[in-house]
Amino acid sequence: GGQSFIRLNTSLSMIDIRTDVSNKTGLSISTFASGAVGLSILSNAGSALAIKSVGGHFFYQRSSEIWSSPGILAAVELQHPSTYVHQLWAVAGVSAFTSHFTKNGNTVTWTHNLGHTDYVLLASSQAKNGYVVVETKTKDYVSFTIRNHDANERAHLFLIGRNKYVSL
Fold it and tell me: Rg of the Cα trace of the chain?
């Protein structure tokens, strides 16, 4: 049992799609052409929301694909006392690569291209009593000191905040 239907121009929406069949998808959109976009939504000024959703979500990206949203913008595992980067990950549009770490004494500077200060640096240390102190945060970089670390101990750093808009 179960039923499926599409209703157009109802009192609450332009299109209603519903299925009560357990193995049926309500709406499926596919693209196969190079450069094609599967779904584009524009909510102009004055609109309340672009998307309103209730229920579970599953988002998956393959290794060559991108994801960009507010949240964790970049993550790195940095070896102290050098600026040797063991692992680095960043969302699309955020330039936060290994060459963007410079060191002056105990202060490390991580340059990025966010263009705003709506972010925080969250850090954790593998050293027993180690910690990280943020010294300066700007729209182009964040400077910090790694303290109470022995040679070759690592710190994990995360840039968390509003993402950078990227036109694809």
Answer: 22
Phi, psi of 118 (to 5 degrees): -85, 60
- Taken in order 36, 41, 58, 2, the sign of the CA dihedral is negative
Whole-number pLDDT of residue 168: 61
- With 70 as the cut, is the pLDDT of residue 11 above it? yes
Provide the 3-class DSSP secondary structure of residue 164. Answer: coil
The per-residue pLDDT for 88 is 78
Tokens of 95: 């330039």
Confidence (pLDDT) at 126: 83
- Tell the residue number behind the tokens 């913008």, with chain if given: 73
CA distances from 41 to 47, 90, 130 (A): 12, 24, 46
**Contacting residues for 93 by C-beta, under 8 A, at least 6 apart:** 68, 113, 163, 164, 165, 166
Tokens of 62: 């393959």
Q: Across all residues in the chain, what is the average pLDDT?
A: 84
Instruction: Characterize 126-165 residue by residue with b for buried, 16 or more Cβ atoms within 10 angstroms of its Cβ, and e for exposed.
Output: eeeebebeeeeeeeeebbbebeebeeebbbbbbbebebbe
Q: What distance in Å separates the CA atoms of residue 154 and residue 66, rounded to the nearest whole number?
A: 27
How do residues 35-53 score in pLDDT, each as one tens digit? Answer: 899 999 999 988 999 999 9
